[in-house]
């Protein structure tokens, strides 16, 4: 895709200005982009039908043309275009996955949804799906083909159901259904479907790398940022409109409570529940209680730590320029003054709306989790046994006789198993005295200092700003430290650093989404030992005959490499499995791409030219 983040930012600003100054004019312009999307698809479809009809006619009237068609492989471009058009128009977008509720299983939940669809005057909800996540969403997908009838699916996360009251869940569902209500919903649905159609088509075109699809890729590089910017501005406005709809059909206070509770408890779930749950693997060869049963107990207990500090963090978040959802604070304040005292974090009876299906769903999610995570749990348990044995050995040694490596290992193990926190701090402090540029150790020491309220954390947090990968944690650590002290001004300074870094991180992410023949590639600058180790692992797979390695030149987070491998795989079958194994050999901190000649011949050739052959 031949546009950069700066271009997209400028277009988004222009779209926002157009929306603010003249909403009707803005919508007309956005509608033109949508019509352009469907127009191009229709033109391609007509061209394809015409080419096929002409080709078939010539093939039947001219045996010479039929021979040329087959011998010169002139039919291949037609097959490529036909497959891609069929994939977009008739396969549609992927259907949401999860536990599909039947009306007889949860009549109370279906009754609530029916009540809301009537009061909001929305189209029918065809399906209700339960997923494990802490989320709710409305999905519109084509039933048969793009542009035809759609299917509305309400997606509700089990963790969300276990966290909210029935009234709060009603407010959340009213927000999601609000996206389907009113005249703007039809327009928004058209925008959504056009975006989904183009994303799917261009994913197919870009992955093909064929010269046949080059004109479409070229058009998309112009079209995509404009359509994305203009549809983004409307999507953000519609979030506020859906919020107002939810507040109207419940109450402003109820929806504000639902917004804050969702943000707050989602963070607590990620930061407290799951880490605590996985720590059980250090002591148990198999979980004594499965996660979604444990999550229900966790929410019922309501032991959520320093709630004022956590609430302050949630309400201090800023709206990201690249997220269609405004931050919690902006959405809450748009509905009026918020009173934190109305929050009832231990009211979580919404899950009862699942009726008799609740325990069945929890069991199914538990069983699925165990199927996918049981082996990893056992691995972590065995690893913990070995590490505890090593910890006991190191702990028995004379501290004055420990090498620096042994001190680092001892500090890590004591920290991991939460043993003797004061000794952990002392060990990390000694390590930093010997290795003052070890910023990873510095961050962990700063976090421990901050937890104890020790101002020695601050110079360490500042030092960590020099390493891109640590900036987010350093800013959050210092922000939390100052909030705990009640120093809002200093806390906001660190929050500003966090927001600025977030924008840079988004640009870095955009740089790392794709790689193509037109991207700037360069010879590898990775350490020779890292390249040799990767080569050895690839050779061990077998059938990997030749490998060239280069790096994509990036503007942001240059210490985090973007590696591109051109690979030749021997044999005629099973190449996908070999490539999948190759992907598993990259270090976790690399952004990695693999290309074969069949995937993208131009990129393959450029990697050969710019890179180094490692096998």
UniProtKB/TrEMBL annotation:
Annotated Gene3D superfamilies: Metalloproteases ('zincins'), catalytic domain
Transmembrane spans: 35-68, 74-93
Pfam families for the chain: Peptidase_M48
Keyword terms, alphabetized: Cell membrane, Hydrolase, Membrane, Metal-binding, Metalloprotease, Protease, Transmembrane, Transmembrane helix, Zinc
MF GO annotations: metallopeptidase activity
Cofactors: Zn(2+)
Ranges of residues in domain Peptidase M48: 145-335
Keyword Transmembrane helix: yes
UniProt cross-references to PANTHER family, sorted A to Z: PROTEASE HTPX, PROTEASE HTPX HOMOLOG
Name this protein carries in UniProt: M48 family metalloprotease
Originating species: Shewanella litorisediminis
């Amino acid at each position: 895709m031949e546009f950069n983040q700066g271009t997209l930012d400028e277009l988004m600003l222009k779209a926002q200005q157009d929306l603010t100054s003249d909403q009707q004019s803005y919508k007309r312009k956005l509608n033109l982009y949508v019509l352009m999307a469907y127009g191009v698809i229709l033109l391609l479809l007509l061209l394809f039908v015409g080419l096929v009809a002409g080709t078939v006619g010539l093939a039947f009237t001219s045996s010479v043309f039929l021979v040329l068609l087959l011998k010169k492989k002139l039919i291949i471009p037609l097959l490529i275009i036909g497959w891609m058009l069929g994939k977009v128009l008739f396969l549609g977008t992927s259907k949401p996955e999860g536990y599909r509720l039947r009306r007889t299983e949860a009549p109370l939940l279906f009754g609530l949804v029916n009540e809301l669809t009537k009061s909001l005057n929305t189209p029918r909800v065809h399906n209700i799906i339960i997923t494990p996540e802490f989320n709710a969403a409305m999905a519109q997908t084509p039933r048969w083909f793009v542009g035809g009838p759609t299917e509305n699916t309400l997606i509700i996360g089990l963790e969300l159901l276990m966290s909210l009251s029935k009234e709060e869940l009603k407010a959340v569902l009213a927000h999601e259904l609000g996206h389907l209500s009113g005249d703007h919903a039809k327009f928004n649905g058209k925008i959504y479907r056009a975006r989904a159609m183009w994303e799917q088509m261009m994913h197919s075109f870009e992955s093909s790398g064929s010269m046949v699809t080059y004109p479409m890729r070229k058009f998309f590089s112009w079209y995509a940022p404009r359509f994305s910017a203009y549809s983004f501005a409307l999507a953000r406005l519609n979030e506020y409109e859906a919020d107002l709809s939810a507040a109207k059909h419940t109450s402003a206070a109820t929806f504000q409570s639902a917004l804050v509770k969702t943000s707050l408890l989602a963070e607590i779930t990620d930061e407290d529940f799951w880490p605590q749950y996985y720590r059980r693997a250090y002591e148990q060869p198999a979980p004594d209680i499965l996660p979604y049963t444990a999550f229900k107990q966790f929410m019922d207990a309501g032991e959520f730590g320093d709630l004022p500090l956590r609430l302050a963090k949630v309400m201090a978040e800023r709206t990201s320029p690249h997220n269609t959802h405004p931050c919690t604070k902006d959405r809450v304040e748009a509905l009026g003054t918020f009173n934190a005292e109305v929050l009832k974090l231990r009211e979580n009876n919404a899950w009862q709306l699942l009726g008799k299906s609740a325990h069945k769903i929890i069991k199914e999610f538990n069983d699925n989790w165990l199927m996918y995570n049981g082996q990893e749990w056992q691995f972590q348990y065995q690893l913990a046994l070995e590490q505890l044995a090593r910890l006991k050995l190191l702990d028995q040694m004379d501290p004055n006789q420990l090498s620096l490596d042994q001190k680092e290992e001892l500090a890590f193990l004591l920290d991991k198993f939460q043993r003797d926190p004061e000794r952990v701090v002392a060990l990390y402090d000694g390590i930093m005295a010997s290795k003052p540029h070890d910023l990873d150790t510095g961050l962990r020491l700063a976090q421990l200092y901050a937890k104890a309220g020790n101002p020695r954390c601050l110079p360490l947090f500042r030092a960590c700003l020099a390493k891109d990968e640590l900036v987010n944690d350093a800013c959050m650590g210092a922000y939390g430290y100052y909030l705990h002290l009640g120093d809002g001004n200093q806390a906001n300074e660190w929050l500003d650093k966090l927001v600025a870094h977030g924008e840079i991180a988004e640009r870095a992410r955009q740089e790392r989404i794709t790689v193509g023949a037109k991207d700037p590639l360069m010879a590898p600058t990775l350490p020779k030992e890292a390249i040799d180790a990767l080569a050895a692992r690839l050779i061990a797979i077998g059938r990997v005959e030749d490998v060239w390695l280069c790096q994509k030149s990036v503007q942001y987070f240059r210490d985090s490499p973007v590696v591109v491998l051109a690979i030749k795989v021997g044999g005629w079958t099973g190449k996908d499995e070999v490539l999948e194994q190759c992907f598993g050999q990259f270090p976790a901190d690399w952004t990695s791409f693999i290309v074969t000649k069949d995937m993208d011949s131009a990129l393959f050739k450029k990697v050969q030219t710019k890179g180094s052959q490692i096998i």
